[in-house]
Structure formats: structure tokens, C-alpha cells
Amino acid sequence: MSRAREGNHHMVTIFSKPIRTVLRDGTPVDLRLFEDGDTEALAAFYRGLPDEDRMVLKVDVTNRKVLGELVGEIENGLAIMILAIDGERIVGEATLHIHPHGWTRHVGELRLVMLREYIGRGLTRMLLKQQVEVANYKGLDKIIYRILDVQKDALRALEEVGFIKEAVLKRHATDMAGNKHDMIIMSNFVVELWRTMEDLIRDTDFEMIP
Length: 210
Known about the structure:
By secondary structure, the protein is of the alpha+beta class.
């Protein structure tokens, strides 16, 4: 068992095997947990994002130190990352960050990054659905998602799967280029998100990879 799997050994119940989903155009994509050996492929994925997409990331994951800190969180069970893989290439990832102590120990913070050519093909919903299942398994009550005002497509996608705009913090965020943005906090309770996503994805093809 890898270090990442040791840190998240409780997740094996859900992800004992990769999950194969079929996108709207028939492309098969595998969903699985991040493992040891994925770091270089993950770094290549982040480096392959367009500049305008990297500008709105919360942290610069193309920085090796920052990426190392993220991997450390995964290994310590403070973050759970699900990778979307087309062939041998990472094409998206969704990460659920957990704070095990304090006021927000019942709340998970979700982040999702995807190559542009996979947006609008059903993969966003599938990644979000799997992370909602993880949140439920972890006993979390609520999920939040922070985005910037310029991320219009992400805002629509989150609303479609049941997230609700809870707050707008004016000029609260500074992107990688130094521009100020309003931060939008989207959220909902896990049970409500699960109910909405089940209805949306009821007819989507899923299979466990043998």
C-alpha cells in the first residue's frame, strides 16, 4: 500500500478499484485516488494549464514546494484527491480538504481543476459526485467551494449540481498576476448535494475496472 493510501486507508472502501466513467462523447475516463508515483504526472498536468487558468488557482501548484505541501496533506489524510485519467494522462483532479479540529471540522473545502477540452463533457459532475460521496463517508455535513468572480463557467457548473451562492467577499482575492477579484463562496449540505447529483447522473454509465 502506498504512503498516500496509508494516509487514506479508510478510503479504500469506496475506491478499492478505479472507477471508469464514460463521457458524453463516449470517451472512457478512469477515476481513482492519488497515489505515490503520481506527483510528476500531476506536476505536468498543472504546467499544461493555460496561463489564464493558472492565474485563478488559489495557490501556484506549478511551484514544486507548494505541490510538495499538497502531496504532504494527501499523505497525512488532510486532503483527498481524485484523479481523472484518460489513457495515461491526468486530465482533471478534484481535491477535498478536511480540517479535523476546530469550528469547521464538519466542513470540507472542495477544489477542482480540469483541462479545458474536458469541460462540458460530463466529467465535472462525475468528479464532484465522487467527492460528495467521500464527504458523506467521512461524516462531513457541508461542502464549500471558493471561486473568483471571473470563473463564470465554474459558477454555472456548481449551481447545476446543487451548490448555492452563500457569500460574496468584495476584492478579497488577488490572482497570480496581482489582480483583485471578488471571492464567491458556494456551499451546500452534503445530503442536498447528494440528492441533486443522483438525479443528474442517474443515467450516466459507470463500471468498476476489473
